[in-house]
Amino acid sequence: MKIKYILSACVLYTATAMINLNAKTLFDAADLHSDVLLNILEDPGYLDKDKPGQHTSFRTIKQGNYRLIVVIVSGDFFFDRNMEKPGWISRRLWKELGKYRLKKREFAGHCIDLVKKTFKDKKDFVLVTGRKDLDTVEKEKKTGILLGVEGMRVAENPGDVEWLYENGVRVFGLVWNSDNKFAHSHKSKSGLTEEGKELVRAIAKAGGIIDLSHASERTVLDAIETAGRDCPFMASHSGVRQISDVSRNPSDEAIKAIAGTGGIIGATFYRTLIKNRNNKSPVYATTDDVLDTIDCMAKMIPISNVAIGTDYGSIIPPKGLENAGCIQKIGAGMLKRGYTQEEANKVMGANALKFLRKALK
Ligand SMILES: [Zn+2]
Protein backbone atom coordinates (compact mmCIF):
# COMPACT_ATOMS: atom_id res chain seq x y z
CA MET A 1 0.00 0.00 0.00
CA LYS A 2 2.80 2.36 1.01
CA ILE A 3 4.74 1.82 -2.28
CA LYS A 4 1.51 2.34 -4.23
CA TYR A 5 0.96 5.62 -2.36
CA ILE A 6 4.53 6.82 -3.03
CA LEU A 7 4.18 5.90 -6.73
CA SER A 8 0.95 7.80 -7.16
CA ALA A 9 2.42 10.77 -5.31
CA CYS A 10 5.35 10.70 -7.77
CA VAL A 11 3.00 10.58 -10.77
CA LEU A 12 1.00 13.46 -9.35
CA TYR A 13 4.18 15.47 -8.69
CA THR A 14 5.49 14.87 -12.24
CA ALA A 15 2.13 15.77 -13.79
CA THR A 16 1.96 19.00 -11.74
CA ALA A 17 5.54 19.85 -12.69
CA MET A 18 4.68 19.34 -16.38
CA ILE A 19 1.65 21.60 -16.13
CA ASN A 20 3.80 24.27 -14.45
CA LEU A 21 6.43 23.87 -17.17
CA ASN A 22 3.76 24.27 -19.85
CA ALA A 23 2.40 27.33 -18.11
CA LYS A 24 5.86 28.88 -18.20
CA THR A 25 6.54 28.03 -21.86
CA LEU A 26 5.92 31.12 -23.93
CA PHE A 27 3.69 30.86 -26.96
CA ASP A 28 4.91 32.38 -30.21
CA ALA A 29 2.41 35.22 -30.49
CA ALA A 30 1.05 37.04 -33.54
CA ASP A 31 -1.06 40.20 -33.64
CA LEU A 32 -2.88 40.71 -36.94
CA HIS A 33 -3.74 44.36 -36.26
CA SER A 34 -1.88 47.05 -34.34
CA ASP A 35 -2.55 50.79 -34.47
CA VAL A 36 0.79 51.62 -32.85
CA LEU A 37 1.49 54.00 -35.78
CA LEU A 38 -0.89 56.48 -34.13
CA ASN A 39 1.29 56.45 -31.02
CA ILE A 40 4.48 56.78 -33.08
CA LEU A 41 2.98 59.70 -35.03
CA GLU A 42 2.31 61.44 -31.72
CA ASP A 43 5.80 60.64 -30.43
CA PRO A 44 8.50 59.02 -32.62
CA GLY A 45 10.27 57.76 -29.46
CA TYR A 46 7.08 56.17 -28.09
CA LEU A 47 8.22 52.53 -28.14
CA ASP A 48 11.38 53.30 -26.13
CA LYS A 49 9.16 54.57 -23.33
CA ASP A 50 7.07 52.38 -21.09
CA LYS A 51 4.63 54.63 -19.32
CA PRO A 52 1.63 53.39 -17.32
CA GLY A 53 -1.31 52.93 -19.66
CA GLN A 54 0.93 52.59 -22.72
CA HIS A 55 -0.31 49.71 -24.89
CA THR A 56 2.89 48.91 -26.73
CA SER A 57 6.61 49.38 -26.05
CA PHE A 58 9.79 47.56 -27.00
CA ARG A 59 9.72 46.00 -23.54
CA THR A 60 6.13 44.72 -23.75
CA ILE A 61 6.64 43.40 -27.30
CA LYS A 62 9.56 41.34 -25.95
CA GLN A 63 7.52 40.21 -22.95
CA GLY A 64 4.67 39.13 -25.23
CA ASN A 65 7.06 36.97 -27.31
CA TYR A 66 5.71 38.16 -30.65
CA ARG A 67 6.80 36.53 -33.87
CA LEU A 68 4.60 38.86 -35.86
CA ILE A 69 2.79 42.19 -35.60
CA VAL A 70 0.81 43.70 -38.47
CA VAL A 71 1.39 47.45 -38.17
CA ILE A 72 -1.14 49.69 -39.91
CA VAL A 73 0.58 52.45 -41.91
CA SER A 74 -2.50 54.17 -43.35
CA GLY A 75 -6.14 54.33 -42.36
CA ASP A 76 -9.25 55.63 -44.10
CA PHE A 77 -9.79 57.90 -41.08
CA PHE A 78 -6.72 59.90 -42.17
CA PHE A 79 -8.36 60.87 -45.42
CA ASP A 80 -12.08 61.08 -44.66
CA ARG A 81 -12.79 64.79 -44.81
CA ASN A 82 -16.26 64.43 -43.31
CA MET A 83 -15.03 62.72 -40.23
CA GLU A 84 -14.99 64.31 -36.79
CA LYS A 85 -11.89 63.91 -34.64
CA PRO A 86 -11.89 60.43 -33.06
CA GLY A 87 -11.20 60.24 -29.32
CA TRP A 88 -8.02 58.24 -29.78
CA ILE A 89 -6.21 60.96 -31.76
CA SER A 90 -4.88 64.11 -30.08
CA ARG A 91 -6.01 67.51 -31.30
CA ARG A 92 -2.44 68.23 -32.38
CA LEU A 93 -2.22 65.09 -34.55
CA TRP A 94 -5.72 65.63 -35.99
CA LYS A 95 -4.67 69.12 -37.07
CA GLU A 96 -1.49 67.77 -38.61
CA LEU A 97 -3.41 65.07 -40.47
CA GLY A 98 -5.61 67.79 -41.95
CA LYS A 99 -2.66 69.17 -43.89
CA TYR A 100 -2.16 65.82 -45.55
CA ARG A 101 -5.72 65.00 -46.58
CA LEU A 102 -5.13 65.96 -50.19
CA LYS A 103 -1.59 64.57 -50.33
CA LYS A 104 -2.37 60.93 -49.76
CA ARG A 105 0.70 59.35 -51.26
CA GLU A 106 2.97 61.81 -49.49
CA PHE A 107 1.40 61.09 -46.13
CA ALA A 108 1.27 57.30 -46.59
CA GLY A 109 4.92 57.43 -47.67
CA HIS A 110 5.76 59.42 -44.54
CA CYS A 111 3.98 56.87 -42.30
CA ILE A 112 5.60 53.89 -44.04
CA ASP A 113 9.06 55.47 -43.62
CA LEU A 114 8.34 56.29 -39.99
CA VAL A 115 7.39 52.70 -39.16
CA LYS A 116 10.36 51.29 -41.09
CA LYS A 117 12.69 53.72 -39.32
CA THR A 118 11.26 52.78 -35.92
CA PHE A 119 12.15 49.11 -36.30
CA LYS A 120 15.25 49.41 -38.50
CA ASP A 121 18.55 48.54 -36.83
CA LYS A 122 16.70 46.94 -33.94
CA LYS A 123 18.27 43.50 -33.72
CA ASP A 124 15.09 41.81 -32.51
CA PHE A 125 12.94 42.97 -35.46
CA VAL A 126 12.62 42.11 -39.14
CA LEU A 127 10.46 43.83 -41.76
CA VAL A 128 8.48 41.00 -43.35
CA THR A 129 7.78 41.33 -47.06
CA GLY A 130 8.27 37.74 -48.18
CA ARG A 131 8.54 34.13 -47.09
CA LYS A 132 12.29 34.35 -46.54
CA ASP A 133 11.74 36.95 -43.84
CA LEU A 134 9.44 34.53 -42.04
CA ASP A 135 12.31 32.00 -42.05
CA THR A 136 14.49 34.56 -40.24
CA VAL A 137 11.67 35.34 -37.82
CA GLU A 138 11.11 31.70 -36.91
CA LYS A 139 14.74 30.53 -36.88
CA GLU A 140 16.13 33.50 -34.98
CA LYS A 141 13.03 34.11 -32.83
CA LYS A 142 12.68 37.71 -33.99
CA THR A 143 9.55 39.85 -34.21
CA GLY A 144 8.34 40.26 -37.80
CA ILE A 145 6.73 43.58 -38.71
CA LEU A 146 4.26 43.33 -41.57
CA LEU A 147 2.80 46.54 -43.02
CA GLY A 148 -0.91 46.96 -43.68
CA VAL A 149 -3.46 49.62 -44.60
CA GLU A 150 -6.91 49.94 -43.03
CA GLY A 151 -9.14 51.09 -45.88
CA MET A 152 -8.18 51.92 -49.45
CA ARG A 153 -8.95 55.67 -49.39
CA VAL A 154 -5.15 56.00 -49.62
CA ALA A 155 -5.40 54.89 -53.28
CA GLU A 156 -6.57 57.26 -56.01
CA ASN A 157 -7.10 54.31 -58.35
CA PRO A 158 -6.44 50.53 -58.46
CA GLY A 159 -3.00 51.23 -59.97
CA ASP A 160 -1.82 52.59 -56.58
CA VAL A 161 -1.83 49.05 -55.19
CA GLU A 162 1.44 48.48 -57.02
CA TRP A 163 3.02 51.54 -55.34
CA LEU A 164 1.91 50.37 -51.88
CA TYR A 165 3.19 46.85 -52.54
CA GLU A 166 6.56 48.14 -53.73
CA ASN A 167 6.83 50.13 -50.51
CA GLY A 168 6.33 47.01 -48.42
CA VAL A 169 2.56 46.97 -47.76
CA ARG A 170 1.22 43.41 -47.77
CA VAL A 171 -2.15 43.68 -45.98
CA PHE A 172 -4.86 45.62 -47.80
CA GLY A 173 -7.95 46.40 -45.72
CA LEU A 174 -10.59 47.44 -48.26
CA VAL A 175 -12.68 49.78 -46.13
CA TRP A 176 -13.05 51.32 -42.68
CA ASN A 177 -16.22 52.61 -40.99
CA SER A 178 -17.44 54.73 -43.91
CA ASP A 179 -17.85 53.64 -47.53
CA ASN A 180 -15.08 54.59 -49.95
CA LYS A 181 -15.15 54.56 -53.72
CA PHE A 182 -14.05 50.92 -53.83
CA ALA A 183 -16.07 49.16 -51.14
CA HIS A 184 -18.99 49.48 -48.74
CA SER A 185 -18.47 49.34 -45.01
CA HIS A 186 -20.22 47.19 -42.43
CA LYS A 187 -22.99 49.78 -42.12
CA SER A 188 -24.15 49.10 -45.67
CA LYS A 189 -25.98 46.37 -47.58
CA SER A 190 -23.90 46.99 -50.72
CA GLY A 191 -20.59 45.43 -51.74
CA LEU A 192 -17.75 46.29 -54.09
CA THR A 193 -18.09 48.99 -56.74
CA GLU A 194 -16.85 48.28 -60.28
CA GLU A 195 -13.63 50.13 -59.45
CA GLY A 196 -13.46 48.12 -56.24
CA LYS A 197 -13.54 44.89 -58.21
CA GLU A 198 -10.65 46.17 -60.28
CA LEU A 199 -8.81 47.09 -57.09
CA VAL A 200 -9.34 43.64 -55.58
CA ARG A 201 -7.99 42.02 -58.76
CA ALA A 202 -4.95 44.32 -58.55
CA ILE A 203 -4.30 43.28 -54.93
CA ALA A 204 -4.61 39.60 -55.86
CA LYS A 205 -2.28 40.08 -58.83
CA ALA A 206 0.34 41.89 -56.76
CA GLY A 207 0.30 39.12 -54.15
CA GLY A 208 -1.33 41.10 -51.32
CA ILE A 209 -3.56 39.87 -48.52
CA ILE A 210 -7.12 41.22 -48.46
CA ASP A 211 -8.36 42.25 -45.02
CA LEU A 212 -12.16 42.22 -44.70
CA SER A 213 -12.60 43.57 -41.15
CA HIS A 214 -14.96 46.59 -41.25
CA ALA A 215 -16.45 45.39 -44.59
CA SER A 216 -20.13 44.70 -45.26
CA GLU A 217 -21.21 41.09 -45.75
CA ARG A 218 -21.78 41.86 -49.46
CA THR A 219 -18.23 43.31 -49.74
CA VAL A 220 -16.83 40.12 -48.16
CA LEU A 221 -18.70 37.87 -50.59
CA ASP A 222 -17.94 40.10 -53.62
CA ALA A 223 -14.22 40.22 -52.76
CA ILE A 224 -13.99 36.44 -52.52
CA GLU A 225 -15.90 35.99 -55.76
CA THR A 226 -13.84 38.62 -57.59
CA ALA A 227 -10.33 37.77 -56.37
CA GLY A 228 -10.94 34.03 -56.31
CA ARG A 229 -10.60 31.56 -53.47
CA ASP A 230 -6.81 31.28 -53.95
CA CYS A 231 -6.33 34.87 -52.85
CA PRO A 232 -5.45 35.15 -49.13
CA PHE A 233 -8.26 36.70 -47.07
CA MET A 234 -8.54 37.60 -43.44
CA ALA A 235 -10.68 39.57 -41.02
CA SER A 236 -7.79 40.82 -38.92
CA HIS A 237 -9.62 42.26 -35.90
CA SER A 238 -13.19 41.15 -35.34
CA GLY A 239 -15.65 39.70 -32.88
CA VAL A 240 -18.72 37.55 -33.45
CA ARG A 241 -22.35 38.64 -33.65
CA GLN A 242 -23.41 35.74 -31.42
CA ILE A 243 -21.74 37.69 -28.59
CA SER A 244 -21.95 41.32 -29.74
CA ASP A 245 -24.63 41.79 -32.38
CA VAL A 246 -23.20 44.90 -34.05
CA SER A 247 -22.68 45.41 -37.79
CA ARG A 248 -18.94 45.98 -37.25
CA ASN A 249 -18.65 42.27 -36.41
CA PRO A 250 -18.77 40.05 -39.50
CA SER A 251 -21.86 37.86 -39.84
CA ASP A 252 -21.49 34.11 -39.25
CA GLU A 253 -21.82 33.68 -43.01
CA ALA A 254 -18.95 36.11 -43.67
CA ILE A 255 -16.72 34.42 -41.08
CA LYS A 256 -17.44 31.00 -42.60
CA ALA A 257 -16.85 32.32 -46.14
CA ILE A 258 -13.42 33.73 -45.20
CA ALA A 259 -12.43 30.56 -43.32
CA GLY A 260 -13.72 28.53 -46.28
CA THR A 261 -10.97 30.01 -48.46
CA GLY A 262 -8.32 29.06 -45.88
CA GLY A 263 -8.42 32.59 -44.46
CA ILE A 264 -8.06 33.57 -40.82
CA ILE A 265 -10.14 35.58 -38.36
CA GLY A 266 -8.38 37.57 -35.63
CA ALA A 267 -10.27 37.88 -32.34
CA THR A 268 -10.06 41.53 -31.34
CA PHE A 269 -9.59 43.13 -27.91
CA TYR A 270 -11.96 46.02 -28.78
CA ARG A 271 -14.49 45.98 -25.97
CA THR A 272 -17.73 46.75 -27.78
CA LEU A 273 -17.08 43.92 -30.24
CA ILE A 274 -16.46 41.22 -27.65
CA LYS A 275 -18.83 42.17 -24.85
CA ASN A 276 -22.50 41.30 -24.88
CA ARG A 277 -24.20 44.68 -25.14
CA ASN A 278 -27.43 43.45 -23.59
CA ASN A 279 -25.53 43.50 -20.36
CA LYS A 280 -26.26 46.95 -18.95
CA SER A 281 -23.17 47.06 -16.69
CA PRO A 282 -20.29 49.33 -17.81
CA VAL A 283 -18.83 47.97 -21.02
CA TYR A 284 -15.42 46.99 -19.66
CA ALA A 285 -14.16 43.86 -21.32
CA THR A 286 -11.91 41.32 -19.62
CA THR A 287 -9.56 38.55 -20.74
CA ASP A 288 -12.53 36.18 -20.44
CA ASP A 289 -14.48 38.17 -23.06
CA VAL A 290 -11.66 37.65 -25.57
CA LEU A 291 -11.61 33.95 -24.65
CA ASP A 292 -15.41 33.75 -25.10
CA THR A 293 -15.00 35.21 -28.61
CA ILE A 294 -12.29 32.66 -29.40
CA ASP A 295 -14.53 29.86 -28.05
CA CYS A 296 -17.37 31.03 -30.25
CA MET A 297 -15.17 31.28 -33.35
CA ALA A 298 -13.69 27.83 -32.69
CA LYS A 299 -17.20 26.36 -32.63
CA MET A 300 -18.12 28.05 -35.91
CA ILE A 301 -14.96 27.42 -37.96
CA PRO A 302 -11.96 25.10 -37.59
CA ILE A 303 -9.53 26.26 -34.89
CA SER A 304 -6.83 26.42 -37.58
CA ASN A 305 -8.58 29.54 -38.90
CA VAL A 306 -8.72 31.42 -35.59
CA ALA A 307 -6.10 34.03 -34.64
CA ILE A 308 -5.72 37.30 -32.68
CA GLY A 309 -5.84 40.94 -33.84
CA THR A 310 -5.63 43.21 -30.81
CA ASP A 311 -6.20 46.76 -32.15
CA TYR A 312 -3.76 48.09 -29.50
CA GLY A 313 -3.16 51.79 -30.05
CA SER A 314 -6.78 52.84 -30.53
CA ILE A 315 -8.79 50.91 -27.94
CA ILE A 316 -9.52 50.75 -24.25
CA PRO A 317 -8.00 47.31 -23.66
CA PRO A 318 -9.76 44.59 -21.67
CA LYS A 319 -8.90 44.27 -17.98
CA GLY A 320 -5.95 41.93 -17.72
CA LEU A 321 -4.75 42.71 -21.24
CA GLU A 322 -3.65 46.28 -20.63
CA ASN A 323 -0.56 46.07 -22.79
CA ALA A 324 1.15 43.98 -25.47
CA GLY A 325 3.07 42.06 -22.80
CA CYS A 326 -0.18 40.50 -21.52
CA ILE A 327 -0.98 38.54 -24.68
CA GLN A 328 0.43 35.31 -23.23
CA LYS A 329 -2.61 35.28 -20.91
CA ILE A 330 -4.76 34.32 -23.90
CA GLY A 331 -2.81 31.09 -24.46
CA ALA A 332 -2.76 30.35 -20.71
CA GLY A 333 -6.50 31.06 -20.52
CA MET A 334 -7.19 28.69 -23.41
CA LEU A 335 -5.30 25.89 -21.61
CA LYS A 336 -7.38 26.55 -18.49
CA ARG A 337 -10.54 26.24 -20.58
CA GLY A 338 -9.47 22.79 -21.76
CA TYR A 339 -7.86 23.52 -25.10
CA THR A 340 -4.73 21.49 -25.88
CA GLN A 341 -1.30 23.07 -26.00
CA GLU A 342 -1.36 22.65 -29.79
CA GLU A 343 -4.72 24.41 -30.12
CA ALA A 344 -3.60 27.32 -27.93
CA ASN A 345 -0.37 27.51 -29.90
CA LYS A 346 -2.33 27.73 -33.16
CA VAL A 347 -4.55 30.61 -32.06
CA MET A 348 -1.69 32.48 -30.37
CA GLY A 349 0.39 32.65 -33.53
CA ALA A 350 0.97 29.41 -35.43
CA ASN A 351 -2.15 29.84 -37.59
CA ALA A 352 -1.16 33.39 -38.56
CA LEU A 353 2.40 32.35 -39.43
CA LYS A 354 1.22 29.36 -41.49
CA PHE A 355 -1.31 31.55 -43.33
CA LEU A 356 1.38 34.15 -44.12
CA ARG A 357 3.85 31.52 -45.26
CA LYS A 358 1.30 30.47 -47.87
CA ALA A 359 0.18 34.03 -48.72
CA LEU A 360 3.54 35.74 -49.18
CA LYS A 361 5.87 35.21 -52.12
ZN1 LIG B 1 -10.27 48.76 -37.22
Care to give the gist of this entry?
By secondary structure, the chain is of the alpha/beta class. It has helices spanning 2-24, 36-42, 58-64, 76-79, 91-100, 104-119, 131-140, 160-166, 194-206, 217-227, 252-260, 271-274, 287-300, 328-336, 341-359, and strands spanning 29-34, 66-75, 125-127, 143-150, 169-173, 209-211, 233-238, 264-267, 306-308.
Detailed description of the structure:
- It is built from 15 helices and nine strands.
- It is of the alpha/beta class and 361 residues long.
- The chain has a single domain (28-359), classed as TIM Barrel (Alpha-Beta Barrel).
- Strands 1, 2, 3, 4, 5, 6, 7, 8 and 9 form a nine-stranded parallel β-sheet that branches.
- Helix 7 links the parallel strand 3 (125-127) and strand 4.
- Mean pLDDT is 92; it is low at 1-7 and 9-23.
- The structure holds zinc ion (ZN).
- Zinc ion binds next to loops.
CATH superfamily, by name, is Metal-dependent hydrolases
- Examine the coordinates and then state which fold CATH places here, giving the name of the CATH topology: TIM Barrel
Mean pLDDT, to the nearest integer, reads: 92
Helix/strand/pairing class, anyone?
alpha/beta
Total domain count: 1
Helix content: 40-55%
Note the overall shape.
globular
Number of separate helices: 15
**Sequence stretches where pLDDT stays below 50 over 5 or more residues:** 1-7, 9-23
CATH class: Alpha Beta
Largest β sheet strand count, sense and barrel closure: 9 strands, parallel
- In whole angstroms, the N-to-C terminal distance is 63 Å
InterPro entries: Metal_Hydrolase, Pept_M19
GO molecular function: metallodipeptidase activity
Protein name: Peptidase M19
Pfam families: Peptidase_M19 (PF01244)
